[in-house]
Amino acid sequence: MPPKHFYRRRSFWLIALVVIIAPGALLLVIGQFTPAPGAWLVRQMTGLARYDNLPNLPEIEANVVAVTDLIYDGQHMLDIYYPGEAANEPRPVVLYIHGGGFVGGSKATTRTYGMALANAGYVVANMDYALAPEHRYPAPIIDANAALTYLVEHASEYGGDINRIFIGGNSAGAQITSQIAAVITNQAFAETMDIQPALAPEQLRG
């Protein structure tokens, strides 16, 4: 007959296995009925992703002016970063769109990267947008177009040249970038999406 400590050890490992597996199994079952648990998990992960490891970050922050939390569509916000040093002519404008699997992330995660672009001589808009599952497609594309509308109206206040606009993003933001670029340059696609482009194709430089 096995000693008592054998059963205690086996019980310990069984309990540990249940504790490890049960939460994942519960999330898997609930996920069959709602995307909320998966979205929550992605949001926790993307909230930790930042681009703050630039060796010259103090210099960038000293050189760049940051205007934060500007409401561009009555609900969502964007930041604008631009060089503090005056320029002889308007600067090109960059709209940057964060990633996060369409369900997470925020402009806070790409703030440093946006400021680095501004330090290189651009006027940068770093935007938030509607996230799934609370909002459905094509909400982020509509938001990106609204952010461009805001820039058309206000970029000159920060020294930006609205006729030289670049759009970029990482991960999901890159996919949103490609779609808003298609809306701007492809009339048939814009009509299919039922979106009136904020820019003329010649204003989009990249």
Record the SSE blueprint.
Elements: H1 4-31, H2 36-46, H3 57-63, E1 64-71, E2 77-83, E3 91-97, H4 111-119, E4 123-127, H5 139-154, E5 160-169, H6 172-185, H7 187-193
Parallel strand pairs: 3-4, 3-5
Antiparallel strand pairs: 1-2, 2-4
Helix content: 40-55%
Order of helices and strands: HHHEEEHEHEHH
The largest sheet has its strands arranged as 1-2-4-3-5
Radius of gyration: 23 Å
Shape verdict: flat
| Terminal-residue CA separation | 76 Å
The number of helical segments is: 7
Judged by helices, strands and strand pairing, the structural class is: alpha/beta
Q: Please provide the count of β strands.
A: 5
The largest pleated sheet is described as: 5 strands, mixed
Proportion in β-strands:
15-25%
Overall pLDDT confidence = 86
Which tags fit this structure?
single chain; 206 residues; alpha/beta; 45% helix
